[in-house]
Amino acid sequence: MSKSDVFKLTNAIYALHNGVYRMSMTIEGLVETSSSLARVVVKDGEFNTQSLQRSS
């Protein structure tokens, strides 16, 4: 993978939302929706990501 490709991939990963999307409007402190980047695999010139989405 070229340095340019590594740079682009790194920027793409940093651009992904990771964390709280929305807090509950009715229950103080309750995270209603969130996302977590779980895994990044770079292999044979391709990359795949896996994430976890949660909703209450």
Give the topology, please.
Blueprint: H1 3-15, E1 19-23, E2 31-43, E3 46-55
Antiparallel strand pairs: 1-2, 2-3
What is the domain total for the residues?
1
- Would you count the extended β strands for me? 3
Largest sheet properties: 3 strands, antiparallel
Distance between the termini: 40 Å
Strand order of the largest sheet: 1-2-3
Helix-strand string: HEEE
Point out poorly predicted stretches.
Answer: none
- Residue share in helices? 10-25%
* Nearest-integer average pLDDT: 92
How much beta, percentage-wise?
A: over 45%
Q: Could you characterize the architecture of this molecule?
A:
This protein is α+β, with helices and mostly antiparallel strands. The chain has one domain. The protein is 23% helix and 50% strand. The protein contains one helix and three strands. The protein has a three-stranded antiparallel β-sheet, with no helix packed on it. It starts with a helix and ends with a strand.
